[in-house]
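Follow-up to my post from last week.
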Amino acid sequence: MIDVGRVCVKIAGRDAGKKAVVVEKIDSNFVLIDGETRRRKCSINHLEPLNKTLDIKKGDAHAKVATAFKTLNIDVKTTKPKTKKTERPRRVRKSHSKEKPKKVAKPKVEKKEEKPKVKKVVKKVTKKTVKKVVKKTATKK
Amino acid sequence: MAGKSVNSKTKGKQTIRLPGGRSKVTVKQKRSSRVVCAVTGKPLQAVPQARSAKLQTISKSKRRPERPYGGVLSSKATRKLLITKAREEEQ
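User reply:
Got it. Predicted complex:
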C-alpha cells in the first residue's frame, strides 16, 4: 500500500494533519516523506495512506514534489535558500547630558619620503693618501 | 494573636508544632488540578500543573505540546480524530 508516490496524511508529531507523499522507502518500518510536512524520515505507523497517488520518482527533489502537488490543488511552501546574515545597523542613543565639544580631526601630515641611507665611506688618512694629494696639487700648479 | 490571613475560609489550614512546644495555625497554598483529556478523561502530558499567576510567566511553547489539539486532547485521541477526518474526506 505504501509505495513511492502514495499520498498520506501524517497522524503524529507537530506536522499532524498535513498531507505528504512518499519519496523513498528506507526500511520495512521507515519511509522518506515530503510535501506540506518537513522533508524527513517518518515511521509507517504515523501515516494514514489515501487513495491518491502522484507521478514521482524515487528520491525526487522538493521542487518536483511541489509541482506534483499542484495537480491536487495543494500549495506547498518552498523555503528560500539561506543567505548570509547581515549586520544590523546599530542605533546611537542621544545623550541628554551637556553637549560635549566635538572632536576636531587632526590635520593629516604627509609623511616625507625616506631617502635610502647611504653609508659614507671614510678613507683612512695614511702616508700614501697624503703623497697622492700633494702630487695632485703640484701638477695643478 | 493569630494573623488575619488565618481567618480566610477558602484556604486550607494546618497546625504546626513549634520547637518551643507551642502550636501554630498556618494557611496552605492553593493547588491547581491536573489538565485532563476532553475525550478519554486521562491526565495530559507536557502541561504544567500551576495556577494562572505562574502560568502567565511560562512561555506559550512550554504550556502545551506543539501538536494540533495540544493541551486539549491526548495523543491517541488526536490520532483517531485525524484518521476519521482523512477517511471522511475520501468519501
